[in-house]
Specification:
The complex is a heterodimer of chains A (224) and B (243). Chain A has 224 residues and is mainly alpha-helical. Chain A is 71% helix and 4% strand. In chain A, 28% of the residues are buried. Chain B has 2 domains: 91 residues, no CATH class; 98 residues, no CATH class. Classes of the chains: A mainly alpha (224), B mainly alpha (243).
Chain lengths: 224, 243
């Protein structure tokens, strides 16, 4: 019961989605498959709430034990403030009505938007921009030209980096412009290798999907 | 009243700039070393991002896809009873029930029931992915590799394009695929092909690296522009260069 029912659900859901592909547009199986895809988004939204609940649980547990207590309290305050404001005011006041405030018109100050624009966006962008320092220092250590392969890696990386600089479009190697070199690198070796990776990954996904549907791969069900 | 409104407007705007600038500097402080200011900013980020995701999921997923239709169904206002849309709306109880099953993970006795929701999600998307990836990444990418065998495309593209682009791409794809073929040792023809594949793969990785670095640099420049143009210059009443 504990393992068989989930395996049966997986088999039926997976097989139905495959079979529905062979039905014509407008048929009931085709429409149901479309609805099932929408259901997936709804169920995933429940999972988001569950994940956030888990963050709250873990943070409370750590705060109680005195492990990074101040930071965990800040995290929880920020989480509840943002979530509360978002739920009460709506994420887009131009479209949604809030059950507490009523209709918000465009141009009104929304604290939820403020948190998003002045806290979340700058923090996210700065976090990702930090990576430029680490990626460069890692490249400095890793990009030693010890072999032909390493030389090709370094060469293309440098050419692509230089090619992104606006004034480099005026530069050329002999008669060949930098733009043409960049174009060829991105269109030929890059496309060829990425395509091979995509084809390989697709084969892996197809075989893994089959293993899941047929119940051979069961790790997603967890232990016991 | 106007003065008060202006003050509020200014506080809303200027306060926001100050908060964003301080948080930006707090994250950059990690470049020196891990420190409490960075850790504080990091926890703020996690809290805000989690809260935002829940609010977004509620307003963009629950309300339009689940709450409004079911609310209308129970009130009898939407859609007309017995119509096709009514039946589809009635079926929305299935994802609602499966979604609620997720929360049984917190129960020791019934946590196994939460697997039903996971099983449905994994099974349905395994089926979707099997078809989607087979079509797009396997069939279409293979078709795209062999365009030079299509006489119509050949006439349209011309020999120059075929020699400079299509043939090297075909060689590159086949060579790169042989590198990922592990059922036979890479010796002889297979070895030469696999080694050629490594060259193509290295060039692609180099190009990806270059693009990634440039994307991060542009983000970094964006943050510096924000600090200088939006925070420092107005603060000291300076005129930004190139303005």
């Amino acid at each position: 019961m504990r393992r068989t029912v989930p395996l049966v659900i997986t088999f039926i859901a997976g097989t139905f989605m495959i079979v529905s592909f062979f039905f014509h547009e407008g048929s009931i199986p085709h429409k149901l498959a479309g609805r099932v895809k929408d259901w997936g988004i709804i169920i995933a939204a429940f999972a988001v709430v569950l994940g956030t609940g888990n963050i709250i649980r873990v943070s409370l547990h750590k705060a109680r034990r005195g492990e990074d207590r101040a930071y965990k309290i800040v995290l929880l305050v920020c989480l509840f403030t943002t979530m509360g404001l978002g739920l009460v005011l709506g994420v887009d006041p131009r479209i949604h009505k809030s059950w507490l405030i009523g209709t918000w018109r465009e141009g009104h100050y929304n604290p939820f938007d403020w948190i998003y624009n002045q806290v979340q966006l700058p923090l996210g962008a700065t976090m990702f921009s930090l990576l430029v320092f680490y990626i460069t220092s890692a490249a400095y250590r890793a990009f030693r030209v010890r072999s032909l392969e390493a030389g090709i890696l370094l060469g293309t990386a440098v050419l692509v980096l230089l090619g992104q600089i606006p004034f480099m479009s005026y530069a050329s190697v002999g008669d060949v412009s930098m733009d043409s070199i960049m174009y060829w690198i991105m269109k030929v070796p890059n496309v060829a290798a990425k395509r091979a990776i995509l084809i390989g990954a697709a084969m892996g996904i197809v075989s893994m999907s089959l293993k899941i549907i047929l119940g051979i791969e069961r790790s997603y069900l967890g232990g016991d | 009243m106007t003065v008060l409104a202006l003050t509020w407007q200014q506080a809303y705007h200027d306060g926001g700039i100050w908060v964003a600038a301080i948080l930006t500097l707090a994250i950059f402080s990690f470049l020196y070393r891990d420190n409490p200011v960075y850790k504080l900013a990091e926890h703020i980020f996690v809290g805000v991002a989690a809260g935002y995701t829940v609010a977004y999921a509620y307003w963009q997923v629950f309300v339009p896809n689940l709450w409004y239709p079911l609310h209308g169904l129970y009130r009898g206002s939407y859609p007309g009873r017995g119509t096709e849309e009514w039946w589809w709306t009635l079926l929305l109880h299935v994802p609602a029930a499966l979604g609620l099953l997720f929360f049984l993970r917190f129960s020791r006795r019934f946590s196994w029931l939460s697997r039903w929701a996971i099983a449905f999600l994994v099974g349905a998307y395994a089926g979707v992915n099997l078809i989607a990836y087979f079509q797009s990444d396997l069939i279409l990418q293979t078709k795209g590799t062999f365009v030079l065998l299509d006489p119509a495309r050949l006439a349209e593209d011309g020999w120059y394009k075929v020699l400079a682009l299509n043939i090297p791409i075909l060689i590159g794809v086949l060579a790169s695929l042989t590198y990922f073929f592990f059922s036979k040792p890479h010796r002889g023809v297979l070895g030469v092909s696999a080694r050629t594949g490594i060259f193509f793969l290295m060039a692609a990785f180099g190009a990806s690296f270059g693009y990634t670095v440039m994307a991060r640099i542009s983000l970094f420049i964006g943050r510096l522009q924000f600090l200088s143009y939006d925070w420092i210059y107005p603060l000291f009443d300076l005129k930004p260069p190139l303005s």
